[in-house]
Amino acid sequence: MPDIRLRKTVLSREDIFHEGGPAADTPHLRGSILAIIENPFAGRYAEDLQPFMEDLKPLGLEMARKLADALGGPAAIQGYGKGAIVGEAGESEHGALWHVPGGYAMRELLGDAKAIVPSTKKVGGAGARLDVPVTHINASYVRSHFDAIEVGCNDAPRANELALALVMTTGPRIHDRMGGLAAEDITGEDGLR
User: Gene3D superfamilies from the entry (predicted)?
Assistant: First the structure.
């Protein structure tokens, strides 16, 4: 498989104190990291894509570390998600290459995370935006952590590139009051409840 050709990364962090309600003493943190890489499959059909997933694993782990560190370290992370924007010379299946290296990188870094890492992908041109879903790291039914983080880059992905995204949060939405399973009441070992 070809080497990863990284053009750039984009790291973003939000510190949210309120959304019209009472201001929190400690802000809710949300962040994203994008890696803009060359798509080695752009412009052609390739039957076997899976070996490239193995090549992407070190990049996924490096991205997960940088993002978690920007949000206070792995112990602070309570929500996560992943996504990919495929440049116009690629296909959505090229974005699916990110499922294993992106998801498992975060789960490895965070230790005992049990919930599946939600994801999304699409084909788009430079400047395309993507809403990446977020759920609690240990139980997908924790409503307080249902969220989405918009990611994108003004000059990416170019036609022959992939924009690979990871997103993380440090807690529930700032004014969560929708009820349901609370994070402190998680009992399941399967990532659901």
Answer: BB2672
